[in-house]
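Example 4.3 (complexes with small molecules)
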Amino acid sequence: MSAFYREKVLSVRHWTDTLFSFKATRDSGFRFLNGQFAMIGLEVDGRPLLRAYSMASANHEEELEFFSIKVSDGPLTSRLQKIREGDTILVGRKATGTLITDNLIPGKRLLLLSTGTGLAPFASLIKDPDVYERFEQIVLVHGCRQVNELAFGEQLVQKLRDDELFGPLLSEKLSYYPTVTREPFRNRGRITDLIASEQLFNDLGQTPLDKATDRIMMCGSPAMLEELRQMFEQRGFLEGNHTEPGHFVIEKAFVER
Ligand SMILES: Cc1cc2nc3c(=O)[nH]c(=O)nc-3n(C[C@H](O)[C@H](O)[C@H](O)COP(=O)(O)OP(=O)(O)OC[C@H]3O[C@@H](n4cnc5c(N)ncnc54)[C@H](O)[C@@H]3O)c2cc1C
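Answer. The structure with flavin-adenine dinucleotide bound is encoded below.
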């Protein structure tokens, strides 16, 4: 048995010069937990060229979706950004990752903190009815440099708000907080600053950070994650993993090479 599923690209959407998303068929045998990632890629010169990708689709959905960066000299994404409907991608059979609800101690409010393509695992998690069962409030924060980089997330949230099942759940429980650092916008600033200054909670009309009730998942640049980790640890939050659940869990959105 091959280590990969060979899936067909169903659609591709380019959001900016550096971001695109695509949907692909999903083998019925490919199982994952919402928030996990898998190795995906292309066959290049007869060999698999693979990178870690979070599933942006939820595990109850028939199709797979991914939200991707375009790195112009990146071995995979210089090629992947050219895929078209009908092309074949490789999807590794095993999904893994720490951004799963079982790695968190039960709580009341779930903060999903992301930058850039770090939104992808949360795109999956906000489509998971179980997340709305476990938490009373969910706050999705997406930080980017420019307003147009928010479009994938904005459309996703709008689509869920219009959905028969998710619409009522979102209006009751989900707060969506997009923020940018390099352009005028209704929310501005880095996630670390917005939390440290409590502006995030003030803007949302919610209570400040509280270890007793808040649980956190974060996915973004390695530098941003390190800053957030230090900030939360200083406040007594403990990192969770597969062996011991904690107050927060972390996944890198990419690795610096
Ligand atoms: C757990 C995990 C999950 C991931 N999920 C996704 C995902 O859902 N979507 C996605 O686009 N990428 C994701 N990545 C990154 C992905 O694995 C690749 O790095 C990316 O597709 C670029 O591949 P490449 O071969 O073109 O360039 P690489 O040689 O892999 O990367 C070259 C450089 O580009 C920069 N870079 C790479 N990926 C990103 C990114 N996503 N955002 C900003 N800068 C980046 C880094 O500086 C890196 O050193 C994930 C990485 C990890 C570790």
